[in-house]
Amino acid sequence: MPSLSSLPVATLGTPRIGPRRELKFALETYWAGKSSETELLEAASALRAANWARQKALGVTVIPSNDFSLYDHVLDTSVMVGAIPDIYRWDSGAVPLATYFAMARGSQGESATDCGHCHHNHGRGVPAQEMTKWFDTNYHYMVPEFRKGQTFRLASRKPIEEHEEARHLGYQTRPVLVGPVTFLKLGKSKDVSFDPLSLLDALLPVYVEVLRELERNGADWVQLDEPCLVLDLDDATRQALRRAYKRINESVPQLKVMLTSYFGELGDNLGLALDLPVAGLHIDLVRAPAQLGEVMSRMRSDLVLSLGVVDGRNIWRTDLSQLLDRIEPAIAQLGAGRVQIAPSCSLLHVPIDLEQEDDLDPDLKSWLAFAIQKIAELATLGAALGSGRKHVYQALAVSDAAAAARKGSHKIHDPAVTGRAASVSDDMRARRSQFAHRAEVQCEQFRLPKFPTTTIGSFPQTAEVRRARAAHAKGALSDDAYKRFLQTETAKAVEWQEKIGLDVLVHGEFERNDMVQYFGEQLSGFAFTRHGWVQSYGSRYVRPPLLFGDVSRPQPMTVEWWDYAQSLTDRPMKAMLTGPVTILNWSFVRDDMVRSEVCRQVALAIRDEVLDLERAGARMIQIDEAALREGLPLRQSQWMSYLKWAVESFQLCSGGVADETQIHTHMCYSEFNDIIDAIAAMDADVISIETSRSKMELLDAFKTYRYPNEIGPGVYDIHSPRIPDVSEMTELLTLARGRLSDAQLWINPDCGLKTRKWEEVRPALVNMVEAARQIRAIGRLDQHHDLRPGAFCDTK
Fold this sequence. Notes:
Number of domains: 2
CATH class of the largest domain: Alpha Beta
Shape: globular
Largest sheet: 7 strands, parallel
Number of strands: 21
Number of helices: 26
CATH topology of the largest domain: TIM Barrel
Distance between the termini: 73 Å
CATH architecture of the largest domain: Alpha-Beta Barrel
Oligomer: single chain
Structural class: alpha/beta
Strand order of the largest sheet: 1-5-7-8-9-10-11
Strand content: 5-15%
Helix content: 40-55%
């Protein structure tokens, strides 16, 4: 990029993980006890330095600091303010790394490596904090936990230290903090009558202390993220925002605050945001482009406006000329001194560098932009707006050519697919009979005991499995040898499940790399990266598929592996599929078609697979919709539209099967109580959900809502290495029995077991089966619970 007059270019935040997943490997080496704390922190420091240098070289003029995290930025905030529950036995001094990782991952207690060289006496160990989705993304954050009378103190100087670290390297950065009101709203308390917002006055002095020290150390701006501004806010939250920013402005008047909103429009919160005493306001013009005019008409003359114009949530190249046509008049009206150019949100949600992707189709690659390319786009925009388009004509010409080629490409459009999707009728989505009748038919067919046990689908992807997959991909292991290896792994998993007494088995999914990628690789309209990793939580990264064109299923995808697994046992073998809404929400989706239409295409492809499995003899088919709640719009006024097409997409997958075929689904790490009607409308025979970290709180809706079908509330947290004992599981099942009838309840883990080790999985599932036996014994003595239709079939 030539040296030109440019509008200020900001990034809001960048990926933490490293271009080659350096953070993942540093963390997992440390957790395994194979490196020291010093080595881990040195690796983290090197990643931060590389991020700052990369942004500077690409032309970023407003570089963030404190956007890096070893695990999660919300957890970092909890630790910064000392919001550490008593269970972690913090002594009010500097927070040890062991305590930080115990909050993130739990600890087993006796093992020094389970929480990261933890030498604290945790007794039988401690569970991790609850985890849930960050707004409507697939990023998971650690839920802050508060209590009445909570006090706060500066317990971690991370934002101050990382700002100072950047300054010593020659970078003037804008520190990033989760805003105090959003932080409190993200948290929860075990006391349901207690509102965390009531802690604001106790929390603010810590924020003020951090901001004052940042200012003393040379910070001139600070970025305070308040994405709660795009939500439906009550009066108490509005007053909290006013009080918080009045206090900050009065306490640190010389430090300029960039108030950052993203993931949607400010809407009825616009007046509130513009009234707050801050120096700058960031708005998301990708999700909500229409809000720019109203913001400009109402903003103060001294307010700096940060325009989020490059998509921080998706991977498509920006049509730069079209964007310039749209925003040039606004910038001319405001004046260049009052504008910054930025992505819509932090670039945390996109892969790092497209140039690593040597195997992508050249046409498709030309339509894409990852984090580094998006930063380059921002620099081009800044230069064009500062010095004129003629100074960046070559970059604009490349952008124009890519936009035109993509629009007309035959690789995207398939008339047969769009025609089939247009012909979908209501009867294709309906099951043949109501659940009450299906339950009787299925109960007679399967003759399962009360509280049947199963797992969600996957078993550990061991180093041996990953090596075999890699060798096969490289051609070092033949197709036949790889198939024999997978059959052996599957047979061992089936035999072991029978041995410990699981009632409904799974084949383990050893042939699958990822629950979305595995299907996308066999569907038309998808492409995949080799290095397009995005953080999901902690050291768990995913490579979202690129859903770029019309979707269809050329041939069966799972039937052969289900058939092989079922041939090894007389017990029911669940067939495992990923549902259309989850495939959609966990992919980078084409932006040239509305999402509901894309989802219908995917649903038809999965429907074809469901019917082929049924014809092959499968009588239990699980269609996972782990991400259904994740896609819910942030504004309640938009929920009905989304839930309608999301539920109809699931129904389209399952609507063609016979009554004897039991449809399962799974959902994880989301709040379900506010969409329970939609979940019931999906009409799955059995649903399994995450509930262990929340201590079955996710079942509170069932106190007043009589859920008609069957449900498996997860009884242990698979996202932690902890091995729960039998008593923990029976305690959770007792809580579940207080909300649901015995005849409805299944027993299963929270989620798939792919990311865990066999030495963790084996004892945990043995304990789960024993917990089921104990609960059955209790259930025989306690007959007051309602029975579902067909429950007389219980013969064990």
